Amino acid sequence: MIIDNEKQQIRELFANDQKYAQNEKKIQNDFIVSMQVAKYELKNRDDPLLIQAGLTEQKQSVFIIQGKFQTENNIRSITYYMISQLQNQKNQEFFIIYINTELKTYLNLSKFYSIFKEFPCIYFENLQKLFILHGNIFIKSWFWFQNSIQIKVLKQKTIYLDKVAQLLNYQFFKKQQFEKMPAYCKDSSYQQFQQAFNGNHQKIVQQSTNQLYNLELDQYEFTNKGIPLIIDLCVTKLLQNPQNIQLEGIFRLCSAQTQDRQFESFLIQKQYSEILDFDNIIVIANFIKRVLDKLKYSVVPYQFYNQIISIKQYFVQETQALIQQFPILNRNLFTLIILLLQLVAQNSDINKMTSSNLSIVFGISLSRPLEYEQANIQEQYQKIKIINQFIQFIIDNASEIFPNQIINDFLLETGEEQIEQQ
């Protein structure tokens, strides 16, 4: 619980901030209006992105927010919901658990922070902690560029967690809060969570998605072309109809969790005919990204990461020589993905996914360091930009870097051939 001295310090910070002091009256008046609206705004109770997870033993509120803001309505409904829960008691203390769902941007988090910028000082005093689950390098570096007093206070109260199970270190977090968390947030620490809550230290059956993710590349089932079968199926489906890769925002749009799970279930159960008939292209595109992101080891082997970072100018011949040093399975998969991205970029006038956009989406999916140096976030951010530039260069020059190679060289000829092989 925050002691009075800490609250007083926050109060003084706000009082001494010129910008906040100038706008304090407007903030207070606008908030009064929002409080009135919140009393009658019923839609916020059904917003799928917010879970009000009850009260702690000290009667503090706990909010769990899924970071998939799609529209202004999401932001507004969450704002009204939080107001409606907190307004009854002026000094109601609360925790927020923000579940990050983005790998390569901070846009949703910035939208989330826009909620707080409309709150008066008292709410910043009463916020106990803001936990950010699965925070990426962009989110952590975003704070460096924010100067408002509201964001500075939020930064002081923010704790980053890599695993859901780390919430067990905080006494306020109870079983009922865990049960309300969406399934996709229950990462590899899910077993540890269940054991802690159930007192059951027996071996728990692994989640089915573990058969698809967090594997070494050579642990996947391969086609005779040297490509993981699940990737082959997905790419084949994307290329089945030219309109698929012309879909605006492909590889960038979010997909529904229910359809993601259904698609994963087809793969786990080897219902390959269902995959080839699956009609949600966004789900398939996102699955390709997810597999790359969750490979145990980077597609571009770690030993080449620093070499890429140090390149001052890109040339086709030198890039070819570098890629040729990759292990054969890594080289095959890397080449397939680049040729796919080249085809997508060639349709950027329709799908809006230029080589630059695609490199931002796939850069660290294809090439990441063995570990991130948290001590120097700004430097890591610059390295990611360099990786993205390198991937963009390869996409733009794919025809020269991979001469006489087409994407079909890496794919089985037909869907039927894929199924019959099994």
UniProtKB/TrEMBL annotation:
Residue span, Rho-GAP domain: 215-402
Matches recorded under Pfam families: CRAL_TRIO_2, RhoGAP
Cross-referenced PROSITE patterns: RHOGAP
Residue ranges of the TM segments: none
One example GO MF annotation: GTPase activator activity
GO biological process: small GTPase-mediated signal transduction
CDD domains (alphabetical): RhoGAP
GO cellular component terms given for this protein: cytoplasm
Protein name, entry field: Rho-GAP domain-containing protein
Organism per entry: Paramecium sonneborni
